Request: fold
Amino acid sequence: MSRRGLFITFEGTEGSGKTTQAELLGGWLAKRDPVVVREPGGTELGEQIRDVLLYKGLEIDAEAEMYLFMASRRQLIAEVIVPALAAGQIVIADRYHDSTLAYQGGARGLPTVWPPTFPRPDITYLLEGPVETGLGRHEEAGKNKDRMERESIEFHRKVAEAYDRLAAAEPERFVRIDATGSRDKIQFEVRDRLQPLLDGAR
Ligand code: T5A
Reply:
């Protein structure tokens, strides 16, 4: 299948500002009718899996957890991402497979792979900063902790270290951004780094 769209993903630890930036970018690109999705979720099945993974208070085996995140992703790919890219649309994803590589691979220590049927993003923004800052933002906003956010600070540090390794291994895809800057400053950088790809996609 030929791909004509542009696939943009946002990654980072808890509260690093992915949702904020994905939404701001979606607004900026509104004239191009981008598709903005979040993970886990984004489809009926995915939203139900999200609920099971984050909010049901279930004990979930680490490998079962990984397959649930990936099942949600596969449904999103089949229902939304591949059709949108094939139609030439821009897809903006708030988390994608790098999250599984960082959380289930890096922090839980599971062996992970990139399934060949999962499209590779054209560009991945990694929002980087102290894990305490992101967790602190959630506390300030009064967000109820989900199952993953209740993990230890060491767990979240391992996630950050895994992201660091992923970005170092693929510098042509990853754009590292200091997540401690203001929302506007980060968004400016996001747009600036995207412009060459947008020019190329015209
Ligand atoms: N997970 C997910 C896995 O383990 N494996 C996987 O494969 C996948 C896909 C998802 C959880 O599942 C895990 C990772 C997660 O633990 P979620 O609720 O979707 O759960 O959690 P997150 O994706 O981490 O989303 P968060 O809401 O936690 O954080 P964001 O999206 O990074 O941050 P955002 O934009 O919501 O901002 C957080 C707060 O900070 C403020 C915002 O207003 C908000 O209050 N903020 C800023 N404040 C100051 N300066 C800035 N620059 C700010 N930007 C945002």
User: Anything to note?
Assistant: The CA atoms of residues 11 and 98 lie 7 Å apart.
